[in-house]
Design brief:
Blueprint (H helix, E strand, L loop, with lengths): L2 E6 L3 H12 L4 E4 L16 E3 L10 H18 L4 E3 L2 E5 L4 H12 L5 E4 H7 L10 E5 L3 E3 L1 H14 L3 E3 L4 E6 L6 E5 L3 E9 L5 H4 L8 E10 L4 H4 L4 E5 L5 E4 L10 E6 L4 E2 L11 H14 L7 E11 L6 E5 L2 E8 L9 H14 L17
Parallel strand pairs: 1-2, 1-12, 2-9, 5-14, 12-20
Antiparallel strand pairs: 3-8, 4-8, 5-7, 6-7, 10-11, 11-12, 13-16, 13-17, 13-18, 14-15, 15-16, 19-20
Helix pairs in contact: 1-5, 1-9, 2-5, 2-9
């Protein structure tokens, strides 16, 4: 065989896996159906939040701590501006998932944090107007990462370490070789064999991993950039994640690209519609812009000025919104990473490390039991 490992999908997770594997001396073939750092999947949009007081589950925190170290290393190794720590603030009612979950994680892992009441939030951050009775957790070790630059950095380092990266070459299928020793991958241009396979399919998981037994759904979401009243008020602003009284969650960023860049905000698992990568409606409609303005205006009255731009992306969801990362249950020479459910990009460097562990050593020291592909999905 010409390759030790084939990596299908070179977006966030796949580019990281290719980089880690090539750095370990593996002969890597990377296959991507689009161009490098493309905007057709889920690894685009200029920014992604990184945070540590993780309301989704405290079990993620060790991976976030390792990811932070790897983000710093990737930035240094690539010479790219990939991560900025501007702090993060997570708002909601005292018993909301967003606030109470973040507080639970911060306390369980002794993460530095502050709890602020509504009045203190507005005093410290005048752009934010939470309702009386709301609480917020503020942490300094949060901020944002650059998705397109991250993918490009991992691809550059992978190629420099000897990885064979091929773009605009869609994968049409894959199969384990007889006897469980190796894999064969078919593409629009030919077939390739390797000892091991990593599959990072993003929104193409329902088709490329149809036999995995995970009921994936793909959800269309939208990212918006608005012109604020004052760019200065949002320069150095913390990233925010807000749960309204009706349970709707939305999030946003500081003004990170100067006066013309605006402030990015979006809903999280709200208003999304089911789709596939082939059927997604990439047009953003006026009713959708009106809907997010309606949420932003009373809570951030200085933000929703002119709409500068809006783009779609895709969440690939599992029923419990936890990731799927681990060996394929039927093919131990295959490792999978998918179902990131709209909160995966901050983990990109450590997921690549985990995948490299799995295909080179068969196991990883990182805690990934929560992400077992064989878990029950109800």
């Amino acid at each position: 065989m010409n390759y030790d490992v084939i990596v299908i999908g070179l977006g966030g997770m796949g580019s990281s896996a290719a980089c880690h594997l090539a750095a370990r001396g593996q002969r890597v073939l990377g296959l991507e159906q689009f161009t490098p750092a493309h905007d057709r999947g889920s690894s685009h949009g200029d920014s992604r939040i990184t945070r540590q007081s993780y309301f989704e589950d405290p079990a993620y925190v060790p991976l976030l701590l390792r990811a932070h170290d790897l983000w710093e290393r990737l930035a240094a190794d690539s010479g790219r501006d990939l991560i900025r720590l501007c702090g993060g603030i997570y708002l909601g009612g005292p018993d909301s998932e967003t606030f109470a979950g973040a507080l639970r994680a911060a306390r369980e892992w002794s993460l530095p944090h502050e709890v602020l009441d509504a009045a203190e939030v507005t005093r410290r951050f005048p752009t934010l107007r939470p309702d009386a009775g709301m609480l917020a957790l503020h942490e300094s070790l949060a901020g944002y990462v650059r998705p397109e630059q991250t993918v490009a950095a991992h691809l550059d380092l992978a190629a420099a370490a000897g990885a064979d990266l091929r773009f605009t070459e869609p994968v049409t299928g894959w199969a384990a070789l007889p006897g469980g020793d190796g894999v064969r991958v078919h593409t629009a241009r030919g077939s390739y064999e390797a000892s091991r396979l990593v599959i990072c399919p993003g929104a193409w998981a329902p088709s490329l991993l149809a036999g995995l037994g995970v009921p994936f759904t793909v959800e269309r979401q939208i990212m918006y950039w608005f012109a604020p009243e004052s760019v200065a008020a949002f320069t150095g602003h913390p990233v925010f994640f807000w749960e309204a009284g009706d349970g709707v969650q939305f999030y946003g960023f500081p003004a990170i690209d100067g006066p013309g860049g605006g402030v990015k905000a979006a809903f999280h698992h709200h208003g999304g519609t089911g789709c596939t990568p082939d059927t997604i409606d990439r047009t953003v409609h006026g009713t959708e812009v009106t809907a997010i303005r309606r949420y932003l205006r009373p809570r951030m009255p200085s933000l929703p000025g002119d709409l500068l731009r809006a783009v779609t992306c895709m969440y690939t969801n599992t029923p419990d919104h936890h990731f799927v990362v681990g060996p394929h249950p039927e093919h131990p020479q295959v490792a999978v990473a998918c179902g990131f459910s709209g909160h995966g990009f901050k983990f990109v460097p450590v997921i690549g490390e985990i995948l490299a562990d799995l295909v080179t050593g068969g196991t990883t020291a990182h805690p990934i039991g929560l992400f077992d592909p064989r878990r029950g999905y109800g």
